[in-house]
Design a protein that fits this description.
about 350 residues, eight-stranded parallel beta sheet, alpha/beta
């Protein structure tokens, strides 16, 4: 199941590739994805990424296979080595015999929606491995470090038989915390020399990290970075049995510390299962996904009202002082429910 993002990866006749690319036969695509066809996987992700009308059918077809993969999120500021660490984690997981999926979210242009997809370039080591599927996705302006289609893309990779799905976020800083609601285990990467370590772990990042990875640990200042993080962890309030974030050193460019990172992920997975936290996190993830879909439908309906007379009339009343925005919103919701 080797592929790196596009629907036209090499290895099959052009006619077959074209038929998969154009196909909207959801049962057939899911069946081929289950058999390890990378083009079918790519086509399914493209459909969910584009918001195609087949998405509900895809979700229904994939539902029996959801929840089987371990989802690991990797986040951190640009330049800390997220892609290199992801690449080496894939190598370590493959050595264990796991099938691995990678979703690398890249920033997109606010003008064209396009993305450089640089993460795919850095992971070419696994491009020919049939046990690895790598997909770069554009954030398309979605905040929080992910793409809006990421949850469904994870479901596609689960359906394709991936044992572990690695989700690498855009890398934009302290506000990039959405990955914690998607992943079973969240890794926050830091590096010495990237500025004040306390600045790096505040404003939400400390709360979402299950494991801190101090990458580029061969640089000066690595010991101070580790001490700063451990000091911040010590200040956190935890009840009996609650998880204490691990701090692991690594030099991803030399594959040093990657086995320790994988061991920390295993340890956290064991804690999740032992304390029934895995079920709770996945139910919370499902609730967030349902809410996002419902809100998307409501936004679409509100958008359709703009073409009618109800919303402009309410807006005119509010602007003229004949009504207030809360009363107008209540009237609008009544219209939507009707």
């Amino acid at each position: 199941m080797s592929a790196t993002n596009s629907e036209s990866t090499g290895g099959a006749p052009a006619a077959a590739s074209g038929s998969v690319r154009r196909s909207r036969d959801v049962p057939g695509l899911v069946r081929r994805a289950r058999d390890g066809d990378p083009r079918a996987v790519a086509r399914l992700i493209t459909l969910v990424e584009s918001g195609d009308e087949t998405v509900p059918g895809i979700a229904a077809a994939l539902a029996p296979f959801s929840g089987r993969a371990q989802v690991v999120g990797l986040t951190g500021s640009p330049g800390v080595g997220k892609s290199t660490t992801t690449n080496e984690l894939v190598r370590a997981l493959r050595a264990r015999g796991h099938r691995v999926g990678v979703l690398a979210i890249d920033p997109s242009s606010p003008f064209t929606g396009g993305a450089i997809l640089g993460d795919r370039v850095r992971m070419q080591d696994h491009a020919t491995d049939p046990g690895v599927y790598i997909r770069s996705m554009s954030s398309r302006g979605h905040l929080g470090g992910l793409s809006a289609a990421t949850p469904q893309a994870v479901r596609v990779l689960e359906g394709a038989g991936c044992d572990v799905v690695l989700v690498e976020t855009v890398g934009v800083g302290q506000a990039e915390v959405e990955v914690a609601s998607l992943a079973d285990t969240t890794l926050v990467l830091l590096a010495p020399g990237m500025g004040d370590a306390i600045q790096a772990v505040k404003a939400g990042i400390l709360e979402i990290a299950d494991i801190f990875v101090v990458n580029k640990a061969d640089r000066d200042g690595a010991d101070a970075t580790v001490r700063d993080i451990q000091g911040m962890i010590a200040l956190g309030e935890r009840g009996p049995g609650q998880w204490r974030p691990q701090v692991v050193r690594a030099v991803a460019t030399r594959a040093e510390g990657i086995d320790e990172v994988a061991a920390a992920v295993d340890k956290h997975r064991g804690w999740l299962v032992e304390h029934d936290e895995l079920r709770r996190r996945r139910e919370a993830r499902a609730a967030a996904e349902i809410e996002a879909i419902a809100l998307g439908v409501l936004r679409a309906r509100i958008g359709s009202l703009r073409d009618g007379t109800q919303l402009p009339a309410l807006a005119a009343e509010v602007a003229a002082g004949a009504s207030d925005p809360y009363a107008a919103a209540a009237a609008l919701l009544a219209q939507l429910s009707g």
